[in-house]
Design a protein that fits this description.
CATH architecture of the largest domain: 3-Layer(aba) Sandwich
CATH superfamily of the largest domain: Zn peptidases
Number of domains: 2
Strand order of the largest sheet: 1-2-6-3-7-17
Distance between the termini: 28 Å
Radius of gyration: 25 Å
CATH topology of the largest domain: Aminopeptidase
Largest sheet: 6 strands, mixed
Strand content: 15-25%
Number of helices: 15
CATH class of the largest domain: Alpha Beta
Number of strands: 18
Shape: globular
């Protein structure tokens, strides 16, 4: 074959390979992920690297440093020519693992930024026999242990996805992969870290955050909204010390009753719906359309399992799955997640207690201004308290929500293509009820980027609770989908 013809043949074959690269990359990543990442997670899971909110002495204990160094060492061992790996240390902030992978072609445009975190929630109680938060256990298709699905898998998975793109003969743009160490505390260190690394990160046109959940493991689910959150402690004090309830009852008002009355100022006691105007927004039309499509996807998947482990006979709010999805994603709520001033039942005497403290987790609609909402709640709790009780509101966290802008046509097509390759089904979207502050901050830092929130937290993952687990088949396919997206972005970037 003449050399010119051979050259033309190679050029045509390269074009064909690049056209098929997203599918091939997805398949390669799915096949390679378990062997590449699970051994790392088994080692990573033994490190009790609690997030700073749960370990104020994190610097002295050194567990976050140990986890970051392990992750960086693993990243440096991967087959990604030209990649740089560093543990970035900024005084007073948790370490940040930063991996900068150059584009496969020098002339490529665009940058992909992939976010993950490595800090962990506290151990919690109630782990099943043979399982524990710091003893990773592989049982069938699930890997049990704290912080494996949330979110130790993220950075290594992104690197395996990049390797798969290269192995498929595809191309990818420059990719910056970051794992931070404060997400489980509300990411208080992320903003200064992003500011300090601004020049090194550059201006990505695609951001992939691998720290979200999925209603099922049968397709690539993209989170399109997250609720905001306010955390704080409401304290009502009526006495200097406890008094016999037979003497004080019906004369001294109960601190618990006053706390109930104050809660009624911000939520409807019958429905739990928030009532302050600053805590309510109208959902956009696309949110209901997305909820309908999600319901159709779940029905197609044959998902008839109840979404929560409710007691028999409990009536959920929202008559249909669509209504429940809308309530979870776009209505606020109040949960009493802790209390002080109440002795254990076994220790309780017939005493009218001097005070009640309730720790509240208040969820806000995605587009609510968290600071405005926080000010409104503080005013509602502390203005003209019932019976003149001493009332304080100690705000701990105000985190805004996030709603994704519309996907560009190329990205919508790439999502479906990647999901089809990895799962055999097109992608779908879901509005989440939880709060991930970094999503809004990433949108703020990179206003022109398309932002995707993806994840492996399918039902049964039980992140933050006992028996947290990573469902391995879901993780494999999600990472395959990410590889397909990176290859599709590389095609768009002209590499």
């Amino acid at each position: 074959m003449p050399s010119r013809v051979r050259g033309l043949y190679r050029w045509v074959m390269t074009i064909d390979q690049r056209a098929d690269a997203p599918e091939d990359a997805a398949h390669r990543a799915t096949a390679a992920w378990r062997e590449a990442v699970v051994p790392f997670l088994m080692e990573f899971g033994r490190i009790p690297d609690l997030s700073p909110a749960y370990d104020p002495q994190w610097e002295a204990h050194g567990e976050l440093d140990r986890a970051a160094e392990l992750m960086a060492s693993w990243a440096a061992s991967r087959d990604l020519p030209g990649a740089t790996v560093e543990v970035v240390r900024i005084a007073g902030l948790t370490p940040t693992v930063l991996v900068d992978v150059p584009a496969t072609d020098p002339g490529a445009t665009g940058t992909v930024f992939v976010y993950g975190h490595y800090d962990k929630q506290p151990p919690f109680t109630g782990w099943s026999e043979g399982r524990g938060p710091w003893t990773p256990t592989l049982e069938g298709d699930r890997l049990y242990g704290r912080g494996l699905a949330d979110d130790g898998y993220a950075l290594p998975s992104a690197l395996v996805a990049l390797e798969a793109v290269r192995g498929a003969g595809g191309r990818h743009a420059r990719c910056v992969v970051l794992a931070e160490g404060s997400e489980e505390s509300g990411s208080p260190h992320l903003r200064p870290v992003l500011a300090a690394l601004a020049d090194r990160i550059g201006t990505p046109d695609l951001v992939i955050a691998l720290d979200s959940s999925a209603p099922t493991g049968e397709r690539l689910w993209v989170t399109t909204s997250l609720r905001g959150a306010l955390m704080g402690e409401l304290t009502v004090r009526v006495l200097d010390h406890g008094v016999h309830s037979g003497s004080a009852g019906a004369v001294v008002p109960s601190s618990f009753r006053i706390a109930r009355l104050l809660l009624d100022r911000i939520e409807d006691p019958a429905t739990g719906d928030l009532v302050l105007p600053e805590l309510v927004t109208a959902p956009p039309a696309w949110a209901r359309d997305a909820a309908v499509r999600m319901d159709e996807a779940l029905t197609q998947a044959g998902d008839v399992e109840p979404p929560f482990p409710t007691v028999e006979g409990l009536a959920l709010q929202g008559a249909t799955r669509v209504e429940q999805a809308m309530r979870k994603a776009w209505l606020g709520s109040v949960a009493v997640v802790g209390a002080d001033g109440l002795p254990a039942s076994i220790d309780a005497g017939a005493v009218l207690r001097p005070f009640t403290t309730l720790k509240l987790a208040i969820r806000l609609p995605p587009t609510c201004d968290a600071d405005v909402a926080g000010a409104a709640i503080a005013l509602a709790f502390t203005t003209d308290p019932p019976h003149g009780a001493e009332v304080t509101w100690d705000a701990e966290l105000a985190a805004g929500g996030w709603a994704a802008p519309a996907f560009a046509p190329w990205l919508s097509a790439a999502l479906d293509r990647a999901s089809e390759a990895a799962f055999g089904r097109p992608a779908a979207t879901v509005g989440e009820g939880g709060t991930i502050p970094f999503a809004g901050w990433l949108a703020e830092r990179f206003p022109d980027a398309q932002i995707l929130a993806l994840g492996v937290l399918v039902p049964g993952s039980n992140h933050h609770g006992p028996d947290e687990s990573l469902h391995l088949p879901t993780a494999e396919r999600v990472v395959g989908g990410v590889a397909g997206l990176l290859a599709a972005h590389g095609q768009r970037s002209g590499v």
